Predict the structure.
Amino acid sequence: DAKTTQPTSMDCAEGRAANLPCNHSTISGNEYVYWYRQIHSQGPQYIIHGLKNNETNEMASLIITEDRKSSTLILPHATLRDTAVYYCIVIRGTSYGKLTFGQGTILTVHP
Amino acid sequence: GAVVSQHPSWVICKSGTSVKIECRSLDFQATTMFWYRQFPKQSLMLMATSNEGSKATYEQGVEKDKFLINHASLTLSTLTVTSAHPEDSSFYICSAGEPLAKNIQYFGAGTRLSVL
């Protein structure tokens, strides 16, 4: 699976959009971009995933660049409850759920 | 979304004893479940893949005789930490996948193990 690079930490004001970047320059054609988050002392939570088109669900939007070498997770109106570690994971569609977690980005949402 | 229940959420045990952690998929069947371990301020590390009706597959460096995994039904996997020692103290988390989209994993709430 392709390696990902994320900033160690980011801050965001409550109510503003949080834009979390992920670099995956070695991604191959059959690999998807998945985002999970882990709130302190809880199990991770699936957020969204995509292959090449932008995606949106009730939690977030995922913007993938045309060359697929990077992506951005957008939380449109961050709340204090969005404070968590966000993991960007690149994985083949046939991996059947075997996830490799990097260090992720610690997002802190401030009042 | 689907729910994965993990029990207990917190356990304290004496060194040398064994501890069993349960992971259940509540509203779906899971032929495969995963077990992770997370030390403070570190990321999740995959320990093993639990396969229903067959032996678990362990990641490199994980002792299969110390971390016994049983997946006897389509909704239950157990992890037993045998002869626990203080260095086994950690946060253990299980996951199971959406049946039709297995890379969407649902995680248990985790079990915090403290070995005295």
Summary: The CA atoms of residues 9 and 74 of chain A lie 15 Å apart. The radius of gyration of chain A is 13 Å. Chain A touches chain B at residues 32, 34, 36, 38, 41-46, 49, 87, 91, 93, 95-104 (CB under 8 Å). Chain A has no helices and nine strands.
